[in-house]
Amino acid sequence: MDIAIILKVAGLGILVSAAAQILSKSGRDEQSVLVTVAGIVVVLIMLVGEIEKLFELVCSVFGF
Amino acid sequence: MSETLFKIFGITILALVVITLMRKSSSDIGTLLRAVCGVVLATVGISLIQPVIDFIEEIGVLGNVGGECVEVLLRVLGISVLSHIASGVCRDCGETSLASYVDMAAKAEILIISIPLMKSVLDIATELLNMSR
Fold it and tell me: What are the percentages of helix, strand and coil residues in chain A, rounded to 5?
């Protein structure tokens, strides 16, 4: 179902923020920044896919 | 049908908790999660509304109002839903000015789309005035 993607993004977000905090507290700041950026990019790709689906649905339902 | 509603409510509350938790550590992914939630819930909402819109189209065909009016109304509805989502996400992230730009663009688009309708109203009014003379 479409709604599961929210759970995936939430789980990814928690994982990424936990990993970033662990890495930054153990002194590896650059790796924590890299992990954060990678997480943001993956979520952005998912978001773009969802936006495309939404626009297709709006075009088909509201008759654009 | 009610299962979808329960899923929506439950997952929205879950997402809200996660966003609040992430506000301190990494607010970027919290913002993205907010945007994803908005888009996905809008998709689900629109697919739930689809039977209502089919019904409105049927009524428009039966009522002899003219397919033009119903079409314009539905497009205006679609534009307002989309702009509501976008400006809501902007406002949540603290960018009130971006939200107002999005709203302004949507209002301009709605006015442009309703110009043919206003023309036909003016035509009907002119015809009535000519007939009454």
Answer: 90, 0, 10
What is the full per-residue pLDDT of chain B (133 aa) written as tens digits?
678 888 888 888 988 888 888 887 777 888 888 888 888 888 888 888 889 888 888 888 877 666 778 888 888 988 998 899 889 988 988 889 999 999 999 999 999 999 988 898 899 899 999 987 7
For residue A39, the chain B residues in CB contact (below 8 A) are: 29
Distance CA A3, CA B2 (A): 14
Q: Which residue of chain B is at minimal alpha-carbon distance from A63? A: B75
Distance from the B74 Cα atom to the nearest Cα atom in chain A, whole angstroms: 5
* Measured distance CA(B49)–CA(B77) in Å, rounded: 12
pTM: 0.80
**ipTM, 2 dp:** 0.82
Per the CB < 8 A criterion, the answer to whether A47 and B32 are in contact is yes
Q: What is the Cα–Cα distance from A11 to B33, expressed in whole angstroms?
A: 10
Are residues B77 and A62 in contact, defined by beta-carbon separation less than 8 angstroms?
yes
